[in-house]
Amino acid sequence: MTTARDIMHAGAECIGEDETLDKAARMMRDLNVGSLPICGRDDRLHGIITDRDIVLRCCAEGRDPAGVKASELAQGTPHWVDARADVGQVLDTMESHQVRRVPVIADHRLIGMISEADLARALTDDQLAHFVESIYARG
Question: Phi and psi dihedrals of 32, rounded to 5?
């Protein structure tokens, strides 16, 4: 059985909830990623911030990324999967919540992320086609 731990990208780095969006953007650039988990002072997952969030919810609104904290964009309950979840559970979570990336948690701590690229390497063609249709075909 293939698990979330098997297909995830290990070593995901968090942006602290009190860090600013300009730092998040630099981290994304340096790590060559399009999203970062937002972690709190309690070392727990508080959300995810994407490059698109920074552009649309900060820059496009005329706000200064140096003055906006990551926590301001962490809305709602973050969706995640347990490291022991099988691929079907990972896909169900991503499809039902319409997310293109999902954090992987073990013992209440972030241990990795699963993105579309990770899925492309791990899934069969049929599984990948179903995922793409579920995520992108909805209006």
Answer: 55, 50
